[in-house]
Structure formats: C-alpha cells, structure tokens
Design a protein that fits this description.
It contains nine helices and six strands. The two termini are 28 Å apart. It has two domains: 89 residues, no CATH class; 134 residues, Cytochrome P450 (Cytochrome p450). The strands form three sheets. It has a two-stranded antiparallel sheet. A two-stranded antiparallel sheet has the order 2-3. It has a two-stranded antiparallel ribbon with strand order 5-6. It is mostly helical and 281 residues long. Bound molecules: protoporphyrin IX containing FE. Protoporphyrin IX containing FE (HEM) binds next to helix 4, helix 5 and helix 9.
C-alpha cells in the first residue's frame, strides 16, 4: 500500500468499525458511511488484485501473494480475495492501535515500569505480552455451540450463542497469580488475546512486531512518557464492547491546561471501564 493512502484507508476502516454490531450508535448516517466505505474499498482492492493477477510476475506484496494463490485455486474467486483484503485491513486496524494506546495509558500510571523498560529494552517483547493479557484490545469473541453440552453447570444447546470474555479470562487468578497487577516480567503463559483454535488471529505475529516496534520508539522518543514527565492525559474510549481502546489519546505538558479546557482529564489513568465515553466529534 502506498503511504500517501494510509489516511484514506484509516478513514474507511474506522467507518466500517463504527457501524459494527456492538457500537451503541448505529445511526442511518453511520450505516450509510460504512456502506460507502465498503464500496470504495471493494473497488480499490478489486483493481489492485486484478493488476497483480495480470502482472504475471513473482508476488512482491501480500496482495500479490493472494492474487497468485487465486491463479492456482479457482475457489479463491476475485470476490473472496477482495473481501479477504478488506477483512485484513479492518482486523489489523483498531486492534494494534488499541494495544499501543492502552499500553501508553498503563505506563503513564506506572513510571517505575517506564524506567525498567528504558533501562532494559530487552523487556519490551515480554511487556507486550503482559499488556495483551492485562487489558486485551479484543475483549470478547462469539461462538455458536456445535452440540448440546454443559459448561460450568449451565446447559448449552446446539446453536446457542456464547460469548467468551477474554478480558475476564485474563484476570482469572487460577491462571494468572495477582491478575490485577501489571507485571512485565510475568511468565504470561497462555493468554488468549489473539483467540484460540481455528480462528486464531492470522495477524498475531505482525501485531506483536508492530507493538514491539511502536512501544520501543515511543519509549525512546516520546518525552512525555519519561518517568518524571507526569503529563496531563486526555482520553476518549470508543463505545465498543469488543474492540476496546482509546479512540483519542492526547498527552499535554503541564502548563498547557488552558488549551484543553472543558475536556476530560485523567492525570493518573487506571483501567477505564468499557465504552465509557462517546466520540464527541
Ligand atoms: C493486537 C492486535 C490484535 C489482536 C488483539 C487481535 C485479536 C484477534 C482475535 C481475538 C481473533 C479471534 C477472533 C475469533 O475467534 O472470533 C482474531 C482473528 C483474526 N485476526 Fe487479529 N488481532 C490483532 C491484530 C491483527 C492483525 C494486525 C491482523 C492482520 C493484518 C489480524 C487479522 C486477523 C484475522 C484475519 C482474523 C480471523 C482469523 C480467522 O477467523 O480464521 N489481526 N484477532
């Protein structure tokens, strides 16, 4: 993807996300925006895949690899490949952004952890796993029961819809001692922030790489993340029960309070409740 198109993709990915099933505000305007975004993305990816399909050369990017796979396997129709591209764009969008945003919030409340990470950058990979456990960007996944069964003393019938709350599983003291403590040296064991089983996240390796790189850069270059900075924090959460994370996160140096008059301040952020605040714009 060309870098100049990134804002274009982001706007469309967010339009689709905002019309998602768990958002409170599914207005006609929101749904129309999502419909338009879906059409534009469909046209973009259809053309991009067609260009690669006809190029007849070795694939140089993911879309090229998908187009090559489509040449080999007739079940991978242009429509299937186009929707795969749209899915990859949206699946990888708010998730990693949410992880980084929430990692920054957790660090702002724990200057000691910032000092530790800055002194020992080798801890960043483990810290990313702990951020994924502590406050997962995808809070829950849905399943339909394949057969009648019993779960924790409750009867489940074939076809019943079940919601597995990852955020809750990650605070189970039977699996994670002192689960409410953020400990970047913890042996995280098997957290399920990327799901489990056949639908395990296809982008987990990429997400880890993005988060580790992003966090290392933020620790290195963001002066307001230094342990002694104590910035003012302005945060708005997307009203979403599944994709949980800030839709807006602004750090300001103290002394610039005037600029943020009327906004919500969280000078010492803790884990905020789900979907606490609607986007104001
Ligand atoms: C921190 C970042 C991410 C988190 C926390 C995350 C989390 C998840 C979770 C929990 C699932 C399982 C959904 C289910 O079982 O119903 C999933 C599936 C998926 N993720 Fe991610 N994801 C992240 C980043 C990405 C990225 C970067 C991509 C691609 C570029 C991606 C692509 C996918 C796809 C395609 C699936 C569906 C897999 C399937 O159904 O077979 N994800 N992700």
């Amino acid at each position: 993807m060309e870098g100049r198109l990134w804002p274009w993709f982001r706007e469309r990915a967010l339009a689709l996300q905002e019309a998602g099933g768990t958002r409170g505000d599914r207005t006609g305007a929101g749904l129309a925006r999502a419909e338009r975004a879906a059409g534009e993305l469909e046209r973009y990816f259809t053309a991009a895949l067609a260009a690669r399909r006809h190029a007849g050369c070795a694939p140089r990017d993911l879309m090229g690899a998908l187009a090559a796979a489509g040449r080999e396997d007739p079940s991978l129709t242009p429509a299937v490949l186009t929707s795969t591209c749209v899915h990859l764009l949206t699946a990888g969008h708010e998730t990693t952004t949410g992880l980084l945003g929430k990692a920054v919030l957790a660090l702002l409340a724990r200057p000691g952890t910032v000092t530790e990470l800055r002194a020992e950058p080798g801890l960043v990979a483990g810290a990313v796993e702990e951020f994924l456990r502590f406050d997962p960007p995808v809070q829950m996944v849905t399943r339909w029961a394949w057969r009648d069964t019993e779960l924790a003393g409750r009867r489940v019938r074939r076809g019943d819809r079940l919601v597995a709350v990852i955020g809750s599983a990650h605070r189970d003291p039977a699996h994670f001692p002192d689960p409410d403590v953020l400990d970047i040296r913890r042996a995280t064991g098997r957290h399920c922030a990327f799901g489990l089983g056949i639908h395990y996240c296809a982008g987990a390796a990429l997400a880890r790489l993005e988060a580790e790189t992003g966090l290392a850069v933020l620790l290195d270059r963001l002066p307001l993340l230094r342990p002694d900075a104590r910035p003012l924090v302005e945060v708005e959460y997307a009203p979403d029960w599944v994709f949980h994370g800030p839709s807006r996160l602004v750090l300001r140096e103290r002394g610039q309070e005037g600029e943020a008059a009327g906004k919500d301040h969280h000078p010492t952020p803790v884990i905020p409740p789900l979907g606490i605040k609607r986007r104001s714009a």
